């Protein structure tokens, strides 16, 4: 008890603080989201995500070379699908020569040691901007699962190490796992967005991919923002269905969920510091209202402290540049 116990004693010097620090961050803690677009030599800034770019495959390869030199060796790929290729069934999603499949193959050919995770969901491919097939104004679960399984197989055949279903259909992890097993891809993994909330923080991402829902919202499949126990249920289902890694999303507003999952399961957890969080930090720091560098370090460590094994973050390159 005070004055024998003085907690400030452990904070007296930086060396001591570093010595006893419980959580820190390295390049191994990041998964880098990348947006791929059709074309050559294209580098387009995303309007609501300042200094973040969509790139054609040739420039994505250059970017990956840079990431690799910083020790950032895991990427999460999203493809922007051209408007005329969209339909209700996401037919383009299973095209072996689609943009995503070509991007995966090009990256794997050039950088075999880069770990590739690919987004699996219909929304960028859907004429309705929804993550599933639409019938009579409803998002149909099981038909969507069949497509997601085929989509996953095509990504794995192109060279993806992990598929990352972000759609929130029930049973899709099982459909995907069964398909991959049937086709002999025993070591191809699934990172499942198990607890993905119907959040307002995805706005800039939908701008980037032009994937806003054409009608309604995503509340019949993404989770209700008020729920906590339900996240445990979602994760349990996905673990039983064969998920290898669990994703919790979005990030900073859902650290309690990360900790719940960490305390209840022995499975790697990924957190996603999503586009809206990026936009908020960027705009506040641009106005001089917060210190960007300190804020991105602080939020990154917060994910680790909450219990995440790694973080999907648009700040990965900035953080690593800062600390190396
Ligand atoms: C879509 C998907 C979304 C994100 C990742 N995959 C948006 C959505 O569900 O509408 C969001 C990522 C971000 O905001 O950074 N399946």
Search tags:
two-stranded antiparallel ribbon, binds ligand PBG, 324 residues, alpha/beta, globular
Topology-level CATH name:
TIM Barrel
The end-to-end distance, rounded to whole angstroms, is 40 Å
- What is the name of the CATH architecture? Alpha-Beta Barrel
Number of helices: 11
Determine the CATH superfamily: Aldolase class I
Note the run of SSEs as H and E: HEEEHEHEEEHEHEHHEHEHHEH
Unreliable runs:
none
Q: Could you name the CATH class?
A: Alpha Beta
Placed side by side, the strands forming the largest sheet appear as: 1-4-5-8-9-10-11-12
Compute the gyration radius: what is it? 20 Å
Total beta strand runs: 12
**Count of spatially separate domains:** 1
- Approximately how much beta-strand content do the residues carry? 15-25%
Short description:
The chain is α/β, with parallel strands linked by helices. It has helices at 14-20, 57-69, 99-110, 141-158, 172-182, 203-209, 229-241, 255-264, 275-286, 292-306, 316-323, and strands at 30-37, 43-46, 49-56, 74-79, 115-120, 133-135, 138-140, 162-165, 189-196, 245-249, 269-273, 310-313. The chain has an eight-stranded parallel barrel, surrounded by eight helices. It has a two-stranded antiparallel sheet with strand order 6-7.
Please characterize this protein's 3D structure.
This protein is α/β, with parallel strands linked by helices and 324 residues long. It has one domain (23-323): TIM Barrel, CATH 3.20.20. It contains eleven helices and twelve strands. It has helices at 14-20, 57-69, 99-110, 141-158, 172-182, 203-209, 229-241, 255-264, 275-286, 292-306, 316-323; strands at 30-37, 43-46, 49-56, 74-79, 115-120, 133-135, 138-140, 162-165, 189-196, 245-249, 269-273, 310-313. It has an eight-stranded parallel beta barrel with strand order 1-4-5-8-9-10-11-12, surrounded by eight helices. Helix 2 crosses helix 3 (99-110), helix 3 (99-110) packs parallel to helix 4 and helix 4 (141-158) crosses helix 5. The longest helix is centred in the middle third of the chain and has 18 residues, at 141-158. The model has no long low-confidence stretch (mean pLDDT 97). The chain binds ligand PBG. Ligand PBG binds at residues 119, 121, 123, 131, 166-167, 202, 205-206, 218, 274-275.
């Amino acid at each position: 008890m005070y004055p024998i116990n003085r907690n400030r004693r452990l904070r007296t010097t930086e060396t001591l603080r570093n010595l006893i620090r419980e959580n820190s961050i390295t390049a191994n803690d990041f998964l880098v989201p990348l947006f791929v677009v059709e074309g050559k030599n294209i580098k387009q800034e995303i309007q609501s995500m300042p200094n973040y770019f969509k790139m054609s495959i040739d420039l994505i390869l250059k970017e990956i070379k840079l990431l690799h030199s910083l020790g950032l060796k895991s990427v999460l790929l999203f493809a922007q699908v051209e408007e005329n290729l969209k339909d209700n069934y996401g037919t383009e999603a299973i095209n072996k020569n689609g943009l995503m499949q070509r991007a995966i193959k090009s990256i794997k050919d050039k950088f075999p040691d880069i770990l590739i995770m690919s987004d699996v969901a219909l929304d960028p491919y859907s004429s309705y901007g929804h993550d599933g097939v639409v019938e009579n104004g409803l998002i149909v679960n099981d038909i969507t699962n069949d497509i997601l399984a085929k989509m996953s197989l095509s990504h794995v055949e192109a060279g993806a190490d992990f598929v990352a279903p972000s759609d929130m259909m029930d049973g899709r992890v099982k459909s995907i796992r069964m398909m991959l097993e049937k086709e002999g891809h025993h070591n191809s993994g699934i990172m499942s967005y198990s607890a993905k909330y119907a959040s307002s923080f995805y706005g800039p991402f939908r701008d980037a991919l032009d994937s806003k829902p054409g009608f309604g919202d995503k509340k019949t499949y993404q989770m209700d923002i008020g729920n906590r126990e339900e996240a445990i249920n979602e994760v349990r289902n996905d673990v039983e269905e064969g998920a290898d890694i669990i994703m919790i999303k979005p990030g900073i507003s859902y650290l309690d969920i990360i900790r719940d999952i960490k305390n209840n399961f022995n499975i790697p957890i990924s957190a996603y510091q999503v586009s809206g969080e990026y936009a908020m930090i960027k705009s506040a720091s641009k106005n001089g209202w917060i210190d960007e560098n300190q804020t991105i370090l602080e939020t990154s460590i917060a994910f680790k402290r909450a219990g995440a094994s790694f973080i999907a973050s648009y700040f990965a390159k900035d953080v690593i540049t800062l600390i190396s």
